[in-house]
Amino acid sequence: MEMDNDDEYSKLFRRMNPPRVVIDNEACENATVIRVDSVNRHGTLLEVVQVIADLNLVIKKAYISSDGSWFMDVFNVTDCAGNKVTDKKITSYIQTTLESEECFYPTIRNSIGIVPTTEHTSIELTGTDRPGIMSDVCAVLANLKCNVTSAELWTHNTRVAAVVHITDGPTGKPIRDENRILEIKKLLCNVLTNGGTNNVRSAHTDVSIVMTHRERRLHQMMYGDRDFDCGESREEGCGPNVTVSDCAERGYTVVILRSKDRVKLLFDTVCTLTDMEYVVYHGMVSTENDEAYQEYYIRHVDGNPINSEAERERLIQCLEAAIERRTSEGLELELRTEDRVGLLSDITRIFRENGLTIKRAKVSTDGGAVVDTFYLSEASGNPVEAKIIEMIQTQIGQQVLQVKHNPFVKNSDKSSDEQGAGFFFLGNFFKHYPFPGFQLIRSCS
């Protein structure tokens, strides 16, 4: 009852102090500036970043501060081509969504962001990664007359996690029959354990009629599967660099991340901090020459900073894992064609028969059209040979399957002008957007 009263008080306080979103295309020469002022609560930052990330906008710089019960963020964003966001539909959607009560206080959602839906049945899979595992999963679903409407698969540190949305093939409706759901779970669990021969770590399958924010759920599934502590030692200078230190004077823990920049990097790190129950009180994000820098002043939700070496090391491992899960160095192929039952099973089988393994995949359908993205490498981990790519395109169709990115072919067309203009430090920002006591925080760094 006390929790319900606290929740109702929070809603009342927010209605009396509604969020304010300002989208400005004049304040910055090469980016759209989004300012968000809102009542603060745990998860507010993630909600805002999630809205921006879901639109595939690139966050070039960000300034974060929460002072007591109030929260203020400033984001410098562009589209994927490096241009300002001028589409009125997009800017209106951002403003309307972030200013809505449902964004910050969803009425039907639990701690992992699940809401009921009548559109599909959701399958969550975690297990040990191996070549051909996605092909096997898709074959089982095709044999059971299930149509995959959308899916996302990640692999990291020998682990695999996937969220797959399916419907009944003949009717196109969600699958509700309990006996059929039990059969799906049984057969998929058999796939994840490789027919019972893979006992290194137990596999997990869950089926429900829910809608999940897939990318956040994938992070949670990988984290729950402890992918962060089962990898091989990384060579020095390779991959992301994360440091965690004390700011004893102000009672904060300081987290600094440096890594190669990419789309949704900020979402991945903020998602991990939030789900590990850390609160970001102040922070900044900047990019320069394809390199990203993130700096956070955090405490645990109980108000205490990190106070043990074990917790410090675990946070470092989890943030490194969160960055690496979406990092794909392999061949990127895009499939565009008409949807049909069994299509995904056929495509993944062709990849497997040509000796390729799927490192990451995103599957989507819209109005009967399919847009799928696959990140591939040879089963041995080596780059995919050009003749293999040609063979696959011949089997599937040159116009249907396109090479979006091959990291082993140099791209001389990329312009350095697409990158950010440089680092903007917190001190300069807070001259224009002051928050009480922040000047004292900088003395800790």
From TrEMBL:
Residues 122-199, 332-411 form the ACT domain. Keywords: Repeat. InterPro entries: ACR1-12, ACT-like_dom_sf, ACT_dom. Binds amino acids. This is ACT domain-containing protein ACR. GO terms for molecular function: amino acid binding. PANTHER family: ACT DOMAIN-CONTAINING PROTEIN ACR4-RELATED, ACT DOMAIN-CONTAINING PROTEIN ACR6. The keyword Repeat applies. SUPFAM superfamilies: ACT-like. It comes from the Eukaryota.
